[in-house]
Amino acid sequence: MKLSIVNYGAGNIKSIQFAFKRLGVDAVLTDNPEEIMASDKVIFPGVGEAGSAMKMLKESGLDQLIPTLKQPVLGICLGMQLMCKYTEEGNTKGLGIFDVNVKRFSNKVKVPQMGWNTISNLKSDLFKGIKDNEYMYLVHSYYAENCVESIATSDYELEYASALENDNFYGVQFHPEKSGSKGSKILQNFLDL
Amino acid sequence: MLTKRIVPCLDIKNGRTVKGVNFVDLRDAGDPVVLAKQYADLGADELVFLDIAATLENRRTMHDMVLKVAEQVNIPFTVGGGISSVEDVDDLLHCGADKVSINSSAVKRPELINELSDKFGSQCVVVAIDAKEVDGEWLVHLAGGTIPTEIKLFEWAKEVEQRGAGEILFTSMNHDGTKAGFANKALAKLSDLVNIPIIASGGAGNIQHFADTFKEGKADAALAASVFHFGEIPILELKEALKNKGIPVRI
């Protein structure tokens, strides 16, 4: 199993690497297109602000590469949001892998949403062995709208897509690497895809 | 539904937990990594590690500890104590910390909050505020509550939100250590005033106190140390009780 984590300078990669290490897989942090293309699985992480993350991604040229990948790709948190069409954060055009927009929660709720929320309406092999309404850890101020590509939904102010799937591309808004044993199970499922 | 968080706090000195810990049969209750794993298994939602020595010599030890925790623990954790620069935070996040907590350094130089949230995102910036009610006025205190300032709690809370804090950890020095309940009035006022999550700290003594701080205090999370460390309140029991009172928790 060759697992790559796309390195474009975004956020806390260590936790993701450790989470896979606990599953017995060494994840390689890389920005090398050949190395990414030659991987069995690819993780697209992201923490921070969408506009500057997208800028870093463009500077590395990886914005062109990612949508062309054929192996399973998992976007996590901001990684998932950047795989969408557009995000209100920094008025940023995304990679357009998922046909959905990303919006900001209103001030009717506390922003960011921070903590453990349930994921429901699960429909993907990514969630094999995970029961509906399982708790996952989330930290985010922006959300992907519920859409046909949703494979999980969560409720915070409204029902939104907390996971997305399109062909070989997967995205999760929550942090499986920080979501206890059930989160690990989802990462294992991704490795098993 | 987003659940209310239960957050044990561990005081660290030279890479070891300081106050005694006696809630399970552990061979080494001084090892923060072992403890953190236990807490994660027992249902804690998040952990806070506070470096109470926070000297320069201690920094490397702290980094080693953070690395080990990140390696072995699969729930989020915050690291606080002695953090005063962007570089400090960069180091800790690279070691695998999810969030950092700043306190005195933010009071001394409020721009630090902007710098951190611009560079790392507000989701990882917790501003800890220690305050004491003096003659009906809540005033911010420094150095573990020992040094009073002229800064008013509610004004400061608003300011840290505007500067980009992602969360506020509010400790009432009037309540800390009393085991008589949290400062729910001040907490509720804070929660109405700002639109970021509030962690209640100081005063936990029994299960009802947690229920009160989530309901009356409108807190998003509750932090405690000794009641957890000495097994006075088992986390699972606490969560079951909260659930029975209609408070959303992760079990």
TrEMBL record, chain A:
InterPro entries: Class_I_gatase-like, GATASE, Imidazole-glycPsynth_HisH
Pathway: Amino-acid biosynthesis; L-histidine biosynthesis; L-histidine from 5-phospho-alpha-D-ribose 1-diphosphate: step 5/9
Active-site residue list: C77 (nucleophile), H175, E177
Catalytic reaction annotation: 5-[(5-phospho-1-deoxy-D-ribulos-1-ylimino)methylamino]-1-(5-phospho-beta-D-ribosyl)imidazole-4-carboxamide + L-glutamine = D-erythro-1-(imidazol-4-yl)glycerol 3-phosphate + 5-amino-1-(5-phospho-beta-D-ribosyl)imidazole-4-carboxamide + L-glutamate + H(+); L-glutamine + H2O = L-glutamate + NH4(+)
Keywords linked to the UniProt accession: Amino-acid biosynthesis, Cytoplasm, Glutamine amidotransferase, Histidine biosynthesis, Hydrolase, Lyase
Pfam families (alphabetical): GATase
Organism: Winogradskyella marina
Assembly behavior: Heterodimer of HisH and HisF.
Cellular localization per UniProt: Cytoplasm
Alphabetized NCBIfam families for the sequence: IMP_synth_hisH (TIGR01855)
Protein name (database record): Imidazole glycerol phosphate synthase subunit HisH
Main location per the UniProt record: cytoplasm
UniProt EC number: 4.3.2.10, 3.5.1.2
Domain Glutamine amidotransferase as annotated: residue spans: 5-191
Function according to Swiss-Prot or TrEMBL: IGPS catalyzes the conversion of PRFAR and glutamine to IGP, AICAR and glutamate. The HisH subunit catalyzes the hydrolysis of glutamine to glutamate and ammonia as part of the synthesis of IGP and AICAR. The resulting ammonia molecule is channeled to the active site of HisF.
TrEMBL record, chain B:
Enzyme active site: D11, D130
GO MF: lyase activity
Pfam families (alphabetical): His_biosynth (PF00977)
Subcellular location: Cytoplasm
Enzyme class per UniProt: lyase
EC number: 4.3.2.10
Keywords assigned: Amino-acid biosynthesis, Cytoplasm, Histidine biosynthesis, Lyase
Gene3D superfamilies in alphabetical order: Aldolase class I (3.20.20.70)
Similarity-based family: Belongs to the HisA/HisF family.
The name this protein goes by in its record: Imidazole glycerol phosphate synthase subunit HisF
